[in-house]
Design a protein that fits this description.
By secondary structure, the chain is α+β, with helices and mostly antiparallel strands. The chain has five helices and nine strands, in the order E-H-E-H-E-E-E-E-E-H-E-E-H-H. It is elongated and about 85 Å long.
């Protein structure tokens, strides 16, 4: 999503309004925990303020992530606001944020903010904790964890009660 800033640079307009949908390429998704991503709806604007550009965007999409317990697909909605200030003269700015030929590519900025919203762990809402067990393991809730004593430490309990 490359935005041409020429009219903004030469003060022909005050701001550039954005109302668009984009598809995130497979090359972005491959290195992340995201299995799929819906089309990303982007609404916002870009304004010039001196040598800087203020990017205000609202991003909405739906991610497909893997459930940490059952490995089922879980839909995870994203609705975030981005407020970035991009200064084309700043040497500390990352390479993909640079303004090249009076245009800027917003996809890396959008992707960076989507990645920050991905949770470390997601659990499917239809999981019933009491029925999760397997060969040699079972899911232990917080209450069960407090009640259950490791058999290797049971003798220590007798020692402490004396």
């Amino acid at each position: 999503m490359i935005i041409d800033l020429t009219k903004l640079i030469y003060n022909q307009i005050d701001k550039i309004d954005i109302d668009d949908s984009i598809s995130i390429g497979k090359e972005y998704i491959d290195g992340s925990d995201i299995k799929e991503i819906s089309d990303v709806k982007i609404i916002g604007s870009i304004e010039e303020e001196g040598p800087s550009y203020i990017v205000n965007l609202n991003i909405k999409c739906e991610l497909t992530l893997t459930c940490a317990v059952s490995l089922k697909d879980v839909k995870y909605p994203i609705d975030i606001n981005i407020n970035e200030i991009i200064n084309e003269n700043d040497e500390n700015i990352e390479i993909f944020d640079k303004i090249v030929n009076n245009s800027i590519d917003l996809v890396p900025i959008i992707w960076q903010n989507i990645l920050m919203e991905v949770p470390i762990r997601v659990v499917s809402p239809d999981i019933k904790e009491e029925n999760i067990y397997g060969d040699g393991w079972k899911f232990i809730t917080k209450e069960e964890e407090k009640k259950e004593i490791d058999p290797r430490l049971s003798k220590l309990k007798d020692f402490l009660s004396e």
